[in-house]
Design goal:
The protein is mainly alpha-helical. It has helices at residues 2-51, 55-61, 82-129.
């Protein structure tokens, strides 16, 4: 019985260490995803301002016009900005989905750990009572 108690205590200690490292990994993942979402949101706002609110046109046309030695086609702002904006929005959605999956996985892992520790402590208590 003492051998089984010692083994159970060792397993609980090992599970605690594993849980700590898993939680640290989870915290890093969530922080990275939130930083990614923040950065992408700022980039998306700038792109939408530039393309949809035409703020970029004011910057482009505020330059001094000089006659070029060769005539080029008329400059037009990139009409095809929507694929870039769509890609950034998709990356943001993927990041949110990853964060959500990690959060639910963390909750399940924590619940499993708590059940394991509770069962282990119950087993130790029962063995001590014999």
């Amino acid at each position: 019985a003492k051998k089984q108690i010692a083994q159970t205590q060792h397993e609980i200690k090992q599970a605690s260490q594993d849980r700590e490292s898993e939680n640290a990994e989870f915290q890093t993942l969530v922080a990275d995803q939130r930083a990614t979402q923040s950065i992408l949101n700022k980039a998306l706002t700038k792109l939408k301002d530039f393309y949809h609110k035409k703020i970029g046109n004011k910057v482009v046309f505020a330059q001094v016009v000089q006659t070029p030695p060769v005539q080029f086609n008329v400059y037009r702002a990139n009409e095809g900005s929507s694929p870039v904006i769509g890609l950034i929005e998709q990356i943001m959605e993927d990041s949110k989905a990853l964060e959500s999956a990690a959060t639910s996985g963390e909750a399940k892992a924590q619940a499993d750990y708590e059940k394991f520790v509770k069962d282990g402590n119950t087993l130790i208590k029962d063995l001590n009572a014999q």
